[in-house]
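Notes taken during the Thursday session

The instructor put the following on the board and asked us to keep it in front of us for the whole hour. The protein is Glyoxylase-like metal-dependent hydrolase (Beta-lactamase superfamily II). We were told not to look anything up and to reason only from what is written here. First, the residues (322 in total):
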Amino acid sequence: MQLRRSLLALSAALLFLAPLARAEAPQVQTQVPGYYRTQLGDFEVTALYDGAIELETKLLKNARPQDLNALLARMFVGNPKMQTAVNAYLINTGKNLVLVDTGAAKLFGPSLGNIAANLKAAGYSLEQVDTVVLTHLHADHMGGLNDAGGQPIFPKARILAAQEDNDFWLSEKVAAAAPEGMQPFFKLSRDSAAPYLAKGQWATFAAGSELVPGIRAVKANGHTPGHTAFAVESKGQKLLIWGDLVHAHAVQFAKPGVSIEFDVDQKQAIATRKAIMKEAAASKVLVGGMHLPFPGLGHVRAEGKGSYAWVPVEFAPLPARP
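Then, after some discussion, the predicted structure tokens were revealed:
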């Protein structure tokens, strides 16, 4: 009898607890802040995620459809639309706080425009940025210079652009001679630069220039006339931030001869990509790319003659500082 009463009591208790076990937790439906930090010698490098946008695979040129489809499927990348990240990089040299590109703001829709928020989430303020260097003057790289009202958000920064891109994208004369479909892109560039030009915070640089100690401009033209990579070096450790050398990682590492419609000079863009990939694979330098899967940091591995693979970094803690 005692055993029966105990079993009945246990059954009642389990019945009471059952609803608790079935209680549903609401889904959070948010992602973690988009930043990733790594150490480069004495420099702290923080990758910042602006967001992602879907590009039509038909924008890729010089690829047979069957090859394109196979490469996209091999890397489980969407087709006919592929997701493409937009990244920026914040470099704290100890003396300068340098932002490489600013993202797109909301110029291309709500899926982008998170650089400022992620910079703050990473522990910095917009006022602390003293230098902004631009790989080129496409709006998805400079649109984040201003807020939604067109006001500058980097009050203390000097903005540095390659002379060739400055003379191309900010020229109303060049814009007027361009195809009608391109003219809105010229206007986006001029509008983004205007507040800083008015305040005297805008300046240009030449390839090979050291922009701040430890960061040097590297000529990488083709995608735009002044498209620039940046070599970052501290205590013998090196990072090459190569801007828009690659838009479709699933395709353009294996086939560097594939270009994209946005390349101003398709032939030169291909030649630049081939040369930089060959050097990066040989030197094993750490690479950062604005349209590589976030955080866009990794290495280039040779995969045979003229073909390469992308090897992303593994998530890792920062080394202990003395």
